[in-house]
Amino acid sequence: MKKSITSLVLFASLVYGDFSITYNLNGQGSMNVAYKDDKHIKITTKIPQEHMQTSQLIVGNKHYLVTDDGKHKDYIDMNVASKQMGELGKLMGMEEESNLPKPTFKVLKKLKNLKVAGLDAQEWLVEMNDNGDKRKIKVVVTNDKNFVDALKKLSKAMQKLDTQGQEQMFSSFLDIKDGYGVVSADGISLKEFSTKALDSSLFALPNSVAKKNQVTLSACALKGTGKKSTKLATILKKEIDGWKLIEDEKCLDMMGMVVEGAVYKKNNDYIRLTLSANVEGENGLIAKYRKNNLTISDYKRGKFGKYKYQMAHVALANEYVLDIKLPNAIVSIDSPTYAHLDRFAKELNLDKFKAIKKSSPEQNIQNNMQKAMQKMLNQKDMNSKEAQEATKMLQEMFGK
Description:
Layout (H helix, E strand, L loop, with lengths): L2 H8 L8 E6 L5 E8 L2 E8 L4 E8 L2 E7 L4 E5 H14 L12 E13 L2 E12 L2 E10 L2 H15 L6 H5 L10 E5 L2 E7 L12 H6 L26 E2 L2 E12 L2 E10 L2 E9 L7 H7 L4 E9 L2 E8 L4 E8 L2 E7 L5 H5 L15 H17 L6 H15 L2
Antiparallel strand pairs: 1-2, 1-11, 2-3, 3-4, 4-5, 5-6, 7-8, 8-9, 9-10, 10-11, 12-13, 13-14, 14-15, 15-19, 16-17, 17-18, 18-19
Helix pairs in contact: 8-9
């Protein structure tokens, strides 16, 4: 149930009409969801002990993470960041939560009636079965129609978003019993639910951020390595049909996995390329959207020479996407405004791409450790006893 807090703060998209929900977080802070329409959403979490507040801000088709320490505000473009974070998740071997089964609930006993944030509510004793782990918990629920309808619309909104399964956890607020929604559980309690009109200034971006993010494309989602791309660079041209290369960078190079990005500009339009090489299970953006049943249109597939591609328009992100399958790699190309990505992509030097040898992160960790141990063995100042111990360790780790 605690994990559901994250789900709630991130995704509040399709509730029609202004509303706000404020929760206390286990006495350690608060979380507020402010919704004006599906283009203006702000979810703010305040933890007093950390002297910092963070907000998820959705303005139009843009999604930002905003951190505020009282002196400075930093804005991270989450539309871009989610792509690189997905690669990092694979690197760390994190399982997508969309693959996890939903918890189930059984009402054991209705304990007492009470009021929570002005809503008529009841405290129930419930058995939760979380993938075979059964435990009894106390929850407070309400059948207040406005509140339950809000939760249903929130849950429905998350199902249309690429939430990596978080909609399953949040929907547990509605899964206790049909017609009821959770207002209080372990770690979270409703403080206020309001349908009063919200001021538009709550969702305003600073001019510097608004102007900068009219294009909203950068080579790397988070801070890159500061180095130029190497693998992606082999297929790039300085200019393609008036599109000029303005940025390219190596974003990630760890455990045999390589992620690199580049940005082209033409007038006020931008195209971004992201190379994911030797990333296990990577099939491109469109495959990911289709797997999660997200709405796409104008779907098309074909070949650039011997290289297969597929392209589509993604309604949620409101962007055009094209994926090219290269040897042990995927190049994803996206643009918020340019629909003819296939015309651009066919001019890339795809035949010049040099593949990375396929390997798993586990294999690369093992290889790096083995090389380090061999290097240590070759040191001249190592005595025979130390060498024997190191050799024994190598044999135990990697076989004789």
